[in-house]
Amino acid sequence: MAAINLPFAASATKRAPNADELANGFPCGDADKQLFDWLEWWLTGQIATAITEGGLTVDSALLPRLAQAIQSGKSTYAVATGTANAWVVAPSLAVPAYAAGRVLNVIAPATNTSTTVNADISGLGNRRVKKSDGSDPAVGDLVAGRVYATIDDGTNIRILTPLPSDAVAAVAAAAPVGGNWIWSQNLANNVITTLTGSAYGGEGAANLGDSTFSGGILTFGAQTAGLWLISFSGVSVSATTDLFLSNIFNNSGSLGAATAQTSQSAPSGTAITVKRFVAGDNMRFTARQIVGASQVISGRLNAVRLGA
Predict the structure, then answer these.
(1) Taking a C-beta distance cutoff of 8 angstroms, is the pair 113, 141 a contact?
(2) How many domains does the chain have?
């Protein structure tokens, strides 16, 4: 048997089937050679293209050749060129059009330096590269030389491979989030004072994830926003007639207030709030004492995330 040179009848005169033949099949009687040649040329051409794009040669002695070509994955693999934030992706078998569900394995050309990364696949124009959940990758998420499984979602190119920022988010979600800080400040008599960072003596220890506590202000991040319990307390250790008041404020105003009991040896007060916060919300804390003169008041701030 001679070696197969696909596609069959490549140089023959051929004709495509007409509408009636496509609907009802070939007519009975002698085969139309041009029609037969076209059919064989088209079928074997499809097979030959799949084999060669899989990086293999057509071999009449190897029946699994088509399966081996599919198994190779070569037509769904590309080494991207371009820049860190603008990928140029040219698979050996060009993608004819963007379509939802198309999978492609891509090697990143460089580590991204922006959360905005674009990919131009087969010259079809830029599509944004997103994480599997549709959000933007963090800076440094996409590392030079690493292979990323991607899928076209119809609008963007999503990375199916877990990224470093995904691991950070998972750890933040699993670990207890919160903190506690001891504060002390000399308060003028009958003056509402917003406590600043210096009052907290180094601002204590905390595991806040992407939330922050700086300058006496607690600001909530996107990953650790949710339901929080906040308590802010203070105590006076001087005269029993001291009156201490504490208050918790955020963007929308007062969230919780407390007034200390009087005629005690160490009057104290605690303001408590339980509230669901969104990214960008902030908390600040005020205190006031009424004793007739300035004095040092000490207390504690506690913040605990209860859930999403």
Answers:
(1) no
(2) 3
